[in-house]
Amino acid sequence: MTRPGRLHLNAFLMSVGHHEASWRLPESDPYADLDVEHFKNLARIAERGRLDSLFLADGPVLWDQVGRRPSGVLEPTVLLTALAGATRHIGLIATASTTYNEPYNLARRFASLDIVSGGRAGWNIVTTAGLDAARNFNLDALPAHRERYERAAEFVDVSLKLWDSWDDDVIVADKETGVWGDDTRIYPPAHRGHYYSVAGALNVPRSAQGHPVLVQAGSSENGRNFAARYAEAVFTAHQTLADAQEFYDDLKRRTLEAGRDPDHIKILPGIVPIIGRTVAEAREREAELERLIRPEYALAQLAGLIGVDPSELSLDEPLPANLPDEEQIEGAKSRRTLVVNLGRRENLTVRELIGRLGGGRGHLTFTGTAVQVADEIEHWYTHGAADGFNIMAPVLPSGLEAFVDQVVPILQERGRFRTEYTGRTLREHYGLPRPANRNTAAGTPVHSEEGALTR
Amino acid sequence: MTRPGRLHLNAFLMSVGHHEASWRLPESDPYADLDVEHFKNLARIAERGRLDSLFLADGPVLWDQVGRRPSGVLEPTVLLTALAGATRHIGLIATASTTYNEPYNLARRFASLDIVSGGRAGWNIVTTAGLDAARNFNLDALPAHRERYERAAEFVDVSLKLWDSWDDDVIVADKETGVWGDDTRIYPPAHRGHYYSVAGALNVPRSAQGHPVLVQAGSSENGRNFAARYAEAVFTAHQTLADAQEFYDDLKRRTLEAGRDPDHIKILPGIVPIIGRTVAEAREREAELERLIRPEYALAQLAGLIGVDPSELSLDEPLPANLPDEEQIEGAKSRRTLVVNLGRRENLTVRELIGRLGGGRGHLTFTGTAVQVADEIEHWYTHGAADGFNIMAPVLPSGLEAFVDQVVPILQERGRFRTEYTGRTLREHYGLPRPANRNTAAGTPVHSEEGALTR
Fold this sequence. Notes:
The structure is a homodimer. By secondary structure, chain A is α/β, with parallel strands linked by helices. Chain A has one domain: Luciferase-like domain (TIM Barrel). Chain A is built from 14 helices and 13 strands. Chain A has helices at residues 36-48, 76-84, 103-116, 131-134, 145-163, 221-230, 241-257, 279-291, 295-306, 333-345, 350-358, 370-382, 398-413, 426-429; strands at residues 8-13, 53-56, 91-97, 121-126, 171-174, 179-181, 191-192, 197-198, 213-216, 233-236, 266-275, 364-368, 388-391. In chain A, strand 3 (91-97), helix 3 (103-116) and strand 4 form a beta-alpha-beta unit. The termini of chain A are far apart. Chains A and B meet through helix 2, helix 3, strand 6 and strand 8 of A and helix 2, helix 3, strand 6 and strand 8 of B.
């Protein structure tokens, strides 16, 4: 099968690497999770590789792993604003919760990041699983999965109204007459919904790219329907090409059914590339990282993910036969299924499963040479399993440097990846259209692509 | 009267200046309110002058003035993060509302800004007056003044618990044993109060300065009591030395009665300095700005401030005899009284009052030479009316440049202002102590001034 065109690459940044034991390597700075210079360095490396974007995960909670790994998480819109100043081209995608924010505040913060970065912002929309997070926000119980997604849909609807509450050409800046803006081109949302009432317009104009790119990462039934309706890029986790193809086809179909162009949703599975000059060198790196895992911590996390008590798991036994099914999980439903299937399919002991999960928490770990990593990426792309990849370097910065300096040039030589940025905004990097303003789209377009802010 | 020591100076940044007509001057960029480079330039000018801090006001609402003046307001924690990267020393104070945020999110965002900036963050705590803001957050009515302040007090209590939820020496980073942090030194707030329940610890450690400096700007009875209990710096507005002295004495007394050291609350009245090489030049600048005001807009704003319908005001008449008193105002109570008293004391017509308010919305406008501005500042300082000033340049950047290049050197020559930064954090600039962690303060101090993050 051949498929023309170029793929998209996102750098998923996390502390000193996605592998939970990466901080224990001699090369790693264990304070880097709180060091903005570390992240600026990573952003510059990713931009050197002409990557589409970088991405930060997030949750408003301190996970129970302070003993185990670096646990400081700077708030992503703050951190990405700092990275905007250290870069010129790369997109900046922050995770934020629809369950624990107010639409006016969050839409405004993303609009501000979008303007400060010159149209490079993206929002990874999450509903935030976990009772611990709920308990930080006046709740004694986690809202149900379905309710969280209903709330998310209304939250995004309100955000879109807010981002379109200024037409592109509000600002007239007529010093002579003393008229700064044309307030007939301000459209207050006047939204009164089930979860939210938001009357007034945003106090930030439309950005160079119209509004931030909407990103989503849930793969449950609710998550897929939500993505089909709203998402412009999707992060997802698959262990096999066949699973990825099934997901890809399913989500493109749902997007079409939702009345959208399937090409306007970019599907990016995660990959943890462990790169060596030889296969043996890569395997030794992988083994070195596995040896540094403390299994007693990892076991507790695995137990939580699949919904059992840690005492029910034994390190040198396979997973128990009877496990709660996806329906009983209120958290990351699809991730639970992926992990259980991985353990069962390969008949792994709990210890082996922990080793496999240590690098990517369920994402595909691929260990090999740069050519093999490039081959795998291209293979998934040409075989309809991905529009690109979410690169989760096991160790940072070295793993991202290896990817950018060794894998990217191969993809560029093959014509599969850009050699220079041709676009200006995140939307342009991903080949996504600048959305028309929903308040004026019915009539004649009244503004150019350039928008009011670029003059 | 003589008073030794040095005063403190904050640069209050706003678009292209505090004078509402400043954007109409030939020198002004009317798009600058949305241009991060404009603000970086202002921050560098303020830092060149060795100012303690810069400050951004805020409200989650589009004010009804798009026609009148630049109305885009980038979210302050985002904008200040961008400015943190453009500066090294100056403090960064953002306004945020306790009425329309969640403590976990806001405390975390300020902690993140504090870490990204190396301990330079401050939070101007506001309760956000105005029905328009309430209607952006699911409400049909503004919560009462008293309720907003009760909520604010609990909000700050929770924030302090969150900022102290990591001891300074949590991070041990022991690669050998694989222990990153000492989770016995994590103190979850477990807060269950009237307005908020927040169970878990923050996912951001304590900063170099312990926690952001707490700033407050309300001068009502509720506002003064709140400031006495929490504030470390206070922005205030006075038209006369006598009023400022009364406020200064009152707030220092209340702070003492609240069990705090009165020297640990710095009182900074606002001043709009209109600076010329001669008095005549300064007066001409002032007149030029007044001529550019559109009175029909300003009249509507004045009416709102004092609680009457615009039709009750005539441009060439004094204020009406019967006006709602402070008790009937749910918004900026003390500002209403200040404006009414100014109009009555000087028997101003509405047009004249609008001219006087155009520059500083009730703050003191001082028109003169650099020496006269320095004299006025020093006079208020030595006569117990201020610990320093909140500098509200009428036009930006030129008004801040004039202050920094002409007034600051005079204050430095007189020994009234620093010539170099000697501290590293905002707290150190203001001579405020680094707070002990409330969870460990009863015992022996377990950490040095340097904290865990500085290594």
